[in-house]
Amino acid sequence: MADSLRGLAGDFKRFLAAQEEEELLDISRPREDAPALSPAALHQAGAFAAQAAPKMAENSTLKVDFPRAQPQPAPEENPVNKTDKTRALADLAEVIKTCTRCPLGATRLNAVPGEGNVNADVMFVGEGPGFDEDRQGRPFVGRAGQLLDKMILAMGLAREKVFIANIAKCHPMVDPLHPEKHGNDRAPNAQEIACCRKYIEQQIAIVCPKYVIALGGVAAKALISDAASLGALRGKFHNLHLDSVQLPKPVQIIATYHPAALLRNPNWKKDAWQDLQMVMDQLGLKGARK
Fold first, then answer.
1. DSSP secondary structure string for all residues of 136-191
2. pLDDT tens across 187-220, in order?
3. What is the CATH number of the domain that holds 89?
4. Range of the domain at 173
């Protein structure tokens, strides 16, 4: 819609410019029906102009004040209202639930579009649904999700105040023939990420948070250009650039450890907390009260 509006605005601007040019040509072009002035009349007009024009002192400059345009209020950063964003996310979720663009669509129990506050300042993006998410159709509801909830609360937020989603929308399994098995999770591969990329990019553009927190190396390297490793990406903000859609306003992204990795390596929790504190400082969050 924004591109269409910009196109229409450009066409209207060019139309006005053409009209002004035509009017200028009309003014400067001698009219065929205008009566010709006699030499005496031309001489009289010149004498009148000389008398009417004020004399200027030597070395002075002529100053002409042109009316200035009144300052206009700055446009809203994200003029899309909550109702429109909710509807857009719901429509996108229905598309995701019926998607079969990659083999994951044939083995999933439920697609997991994502959920949360459509006007969230913070959006968490993981790699893909796991066993519990596949059964409930909701992101981060297993053990890793319980830890993510604690991380969100520690920031001084609530799960209902943020938006949570994954790069892949269906459960990647090591053994897709036995979806009932526990410990059957794997990271999505490059083909699966490519098929799902437009979905997560559209969700980011609709919510348009101030900050995206990429959870784990898969999500970080999928969303941050020229990503080398999670270690190289952590500890700093990156400007987010999407491939399939234009962001309504600038969004920054930061990478940190996936909650599942923190469960396996508790020593990394301190580093993850430092990453989250960077976002907290930018948003003025004080964290949960003890």
1. HT-SS-SHHHHHHHHHHHHTT--GGGSEEEESSSS--BSSTT-TT-SS-B----HH
2. 999 999 999 999 999 999 999 999 999 999 999 9
3. 3.40.470.10
4. 82-283
